[in-house]
Specification:
elongated, mainly alpha, binds glutamic acid, three-stranded antiparallel sheet, two-stranded parallel sheet
Length: 481
């Protein structure tokens, strides 16, 4: 079995395409198949090297590796379509010679007029076959007039194209319903995706095409080309579309749609991979957090859902939080460091042991790595200003008692050696307050928040000096009015 992922390098790696890559990768692993990466860059105006580079980088980041591709020759290359024009030219000649294709001299203006006429009649555009049967003289006069032809595929009449899709089931198309004779080579000589994709799939010996459902309507065209060229047709599996929460096609207005942005925001590759693998698929037990090995064991091509998958941004965050909590501490610390720096803190001089203890304490409060920016100040700022909730609580009378008491205790016999075990104990004895009335204001004074990492574990990591400064600050702010 051989599968392929065939991105067009015309922008960032979109989450929908990343999901196609994940599905191919998993099936390849499951079936011990070769996984081919093919760059579909024949749209010269929109394709860029920069986009190709970033797509490869994003795939690698997600842990997706290929057996053959532009950087890894497997004997079926080249793996960039822009480097295969000679191959396509030979096939185009064949099609022209056999009469399965013809030169079309219609100008852009003429085609626009045809399109408008169809629109006015409220019919879908079908090329009426104006150049289907040109005589040699007609063709010559167009050529002499300086017109550069496109090449159109001659769609046979009355042909049935049956696609037996592993996910969608049997889908039947009639050749009269696929939009008429379609262009396979532009007037500038560059070939069109729908034409060359099937040539490449055949030459690269791809056995299974797993791709987005948006390509299902293209499939009959590709099969007709294969028939005309006597090329093998692969098996198909069209993945249901990924939709936004409002069930329209997933786009930027729904949230982040590029893998690169997920990476920058602090999602972990394992979490994104896991989430994308679960889009349109569920385990029998309902289990959702699965390693690659577990997914590979359980997934089947035919068990992928036929209906659209709604992208749940919150669920991906939640899943990411799970991965953050379960990660090896040293590795996750390394992942957190750039996000701590982005938040404006320099931790280069911080002893590693202390940093890891801090991370161990706060990672449970981070769903994405960049969440740390909002929390890390608890341990690094002199005074971590109380947020609205903490501020509201500290203004209450009972809380003021805690602040007064903390101030008193701070000034008598507390030092760096004993403060973390003594402070709360002594406030309790002094005020006779306990439970929430003690712990919430104490937490608000020391961490500026009512929720967050455990207070008794945070105290030693915040440090004596800081704790004292925060008590002073709160005393000044809440008890001196
Ligand atoms: N290059 C196509 C795309 O990016 C993929 C085509 C295919 O998988 O057949 O949508």
């Amino acid at each position: 079995m051989r599968v392929r992922f065939a991105p067009s390098p015309t922008g960032f790696l979109h989450i929908g395409n990343a999901r196609t890559a994940v599905a191919n990768f998993i099936i390849a692993k499951k079936e011990n198949a070769s996984f081919i990466l093919r760059i579909e860059d024949t749209d010269m105006e929109r394709s860029t090297k920069e986009s190709e580079r970033s797509i490869l980088e994003d795939l690698r980041w997600m842990g997706i590796d290929w057996d053959e591709g532009p950087d890894r020759d497997g004997g079926h290359g080249p793996y960039r379509q822009s480097e295969r024009f000679d191959i396509y030219d030979a096939y185009t000649r064949k099609l022209l010679e056999s009469g399965n294709a013809y030169h079309c001299y219609c100008t852009v203006e003429e085609l626009d007029a045809m399109r408008k006429a169809c629109e006015a009649a409220e019919k879908p555009f079908v090329y009426p076959g104006k150049c289907r049967n040109l005589t040699a003289e007609q063709a010559k006069s167009f050529k002499d007039a300086g017109r550069r032809p496109t090449v159109r595929f001659r769609v046979p009449d009355g042909e049935i194209i049956t696609v037996r899709d592993h996910i969608k089931g049997t889908v039947v198309f009639g050749s009269e319903n696929i939009g008429g004779d379609f262009i396979i080579v532009r007037s500038d000589g560059t070939p069109i995706y729908n034409y060359i994709v099937i040539i490449d799939d055949a030459l690269m010996k791809v056995t299974h095409v797993i791709r987005g459902e948006d390509h299902l309507p293209n499939t009959p065209k590709q099969i007709l080309v294969a028939r005309a060229l006597d090329l093998p047709v692969p098996e198909y599996a069209h993945l249901a579309l990924v939709l936004g929460p409002d069930r329209s096609k997933l786009s930027k207005r729904h949230g982040i749609t590029s893998v690169e942005m997920y990476r920058k925001e602090g999602y972990l590759p394992e979490a994104l991979f896991n989430y994308l693998a679960m889009l349109g698929w569920a385990t029998e037990t309902g289990e959702e957090i699965l390693s690659l090995g577990e997914i590979v064991k359980q997934i089947e091509l035919s068990s992928l859902s036929r209906s659209a998958a709604v992208f749940d941004f919150q669920k991906l965050r939640w899943m990411n939080g799970n991965y953050i909590r379960g990660y090896d501490l040293s590795k996750i610390t390394d992942f957190f460091i750039p996000h701590i720096k982005d938040a404006g803190y320099d931790v280069d001089d911080m002893p590693r042991e202390r940093l890891e203890s801090v991370i161990s304490l706060v990672r449970g409060n981070c769903e994405i790595l960049s969440d740390i920016g909002k929390i890390i100040g608890i341990f690094l700022d002199d005074v971590f200003l109380p947020d609205e909730e903490a501020d509201g609580l500290l203004r209450e009378e009972d809380s003021k008692k805690i602040v007064e008491s903390a101030k008193k205790i701070a000034g008598s016999g507390l030092d760096a050696g004993n403060y973390s075990s003594e402070l709360i104990k002594r406030i309790k004895a002094d005020t006779s307050l306990g439970g929430k009335k003690l712990f919430l204001p104490a937490r608000a004074i020391i961490t500026g928040r009512l929720k967050g990492p455990e207070l008794d574990l945070s105290l030693p990591l915040i440090g004596f000096e800081r704790c004292m400064k925060r008590i002073d600050y709160c005393h000044e702010k809440y008890c001196r009015q």
